Amino acid sequence: MKVTVRESDTFFYYSQLFDIPLALILASNRELDAEQLQPEQQVSIPGYVKHAVKIGPGDSLWRIATQRQLPLDALLLMNPKLDPYHLNAGDSVSIPIRMTKSIIKGNQAYDYQTMIKDINRLSAVYPFIRQQTVGQSVLGKKIPEIQIGQGQKQLHINGAFHAREWITTPVIMTFLNDYLLSLTNRRTLRGLSMAPFYETTTLSIVPMVNVDGVDLVIHGADAAEERKADVLKMNGGQSDFSQWKANIHGVDLNDQFPAGWDIEQQRREQSPGPADYPGAHPLSEPEAKAIAELTKQRDFERVIAFHTQGEEFYWGFEKKEPPEAENIATEFARVSGYKPIQYVDSYAGYKDWFINEWRKPGFTVELGREKNPVPLSQFAEIYQKALGIFLANFYM
Q1: Most CB contacts within 10 A, which of 156, 178, 213, 230?
Q2: What average pLDDT does this structure show over 370-376?
């Protein structure tokens, strides 16, 4: 929501008027001079949307403000051209509506366009988040990254490395929305105030790594566009792509990283297909390369890659994980009920590479249970268990 600056208005005044933390308002208006607002400038108020209501016979701004429990000056600010003493029945008044419910509807088939639409909606309501494109897929789709927070502690999470594991994306997006709601409504998540984490932490999120593959699983071969014939051939002529893990090239993106890649290459599939082909060489695929470049550019303290399924997580690699990784793993297990596994006979994954290169904590979290793709009927349970890990990631 935007309001028009009046003479002598300040960001601090807007913070008090709309009960929004000053840091969020400042971050939502990075392009403006925080020390000297100019009349007629437009200021974004995060966490609010505008709503138009019709003026009834005998209505006044005072009555509308009282009925809706709004500060009168908020109505005056939002309706600068309205004469408060001469309202005409049938005219419209803009009122501020605080967002208190989630925009994200995670319990649905969650494809690339749904994610992009939701990111744009969140950015419009919560402009203190930042987004950028970190790379492009084989089919040229932009891979978005979202950043939130102002702290020096850099954390990274991602989802949907594997196409059939797309449920990880709405889980991540639901948490992001809950985090935003907690900040703008000054409410806790599981008893934790989130404002201190916003100030101390910068969270990087890539909700969907394998953007082409997710659309292939959800929409079928037509989603592969000019590569439709290729994916049908790799899938044995079958139109059911529900078990597809790879990208559109038929490469497993979580077998693409230079951390024992040669070991995986020798024992995995030797040609492109729905699953388990590590590619011709490490980081051959644009999606894996995009995540690798992002990681190299940032000083991430910790990374978490969300996968499915098994209700467990992996936290070691060739004894190169730092000592503090065990404490973090213990807490992740406590708050989620998931089983911590230090070592597994697997190489070339994103968390393997992160641990190998930086000797910092990295985690692969397997959400849900039974089989892939995990059914949407598990979504609510998955989210509640994952929420503990999302929150512990901040305070550990």
Answers
A1: 213
A2: 93
Q: How many domains does the chain have?
A: 2
In Å, what is the CA distance from 241 to each residue of 190, 213, 232, 311? 38, 9, 9, 24
Shared domain for 348 and 389, answered yes or no, is: yes
Over residues 151-156, the mean pLDDT reads 98
**Do residues 344 and 390 both lie within one domain?**
yes
Q: Mean per-residue pLDDT for 285-309?
A: 98
Question: Which CATH number covers residue 52?
Answer: 3.10.350.10
Average pLDDT score over residue span 144-157: 98
Place of tokens 């051939």: 233
Cis before 309? omega within 30 = yes
| 8 Å CB contact between 96 and 103 | no
Distance, in Å, from the CA atom of 320 to the CA atom of 87, rounded to the nearest integer, reads 71
Q: Is the peptide bond before 373 cis (omega within 30 degrees of 0)?
A: yes
Q: Which residue is it, tokens 């997580």? A: 313
- Model confidence at 82, pLDDT cuts 50, 70, 90, reads confident
Where does a domain end: 98, 128, 156? 98
Q: Could you tell me which residues come within 8 angstroms of residue 140 by beta carbon, excluding any fewer than 6 positions away? A: none
Q: Is position 374 within any domain?
A: yes
Domain identity same for 88 and 122? no
Which residues are tagged catalytic? 366
Instruction: Give the CATH number, domain containing residue 185.
Output: 3.40.630.10
